[in-house]
Amino acid sequence: MASAGVLTETKKITELRVIDLKTELKRRNLDVTGVKNVLVARLKQAIEKEGGDTDNIEITLSSDTPTKRTPKAKGNYIGLYRYCYAYFENVSVS
Question: Taking every annotated instance into account, which residue ranges of this chain make up the domain SAP (predicted)?
Fold first, then answer.
């Protein structure tokens, strides 16, 4: 029985993110260092030795795998200035 937070998906190896490539390489006890092209080549070589499809791969996505990067907060210097001014002047921030 599969756990509730795990999904499988078939993707092209070249479209995998670096984090996904490293996960697949770790699963196979392979080196996870290098740039994306090196990781792709290493994974393709491992899959070829296993006798699998070197273009597509079925990867397991768990619920804790990030799907998108969380955007960084953009600087709001006016708001920061108002907050600091209110803090130092003991005035409430509205």
Answer: 13-47
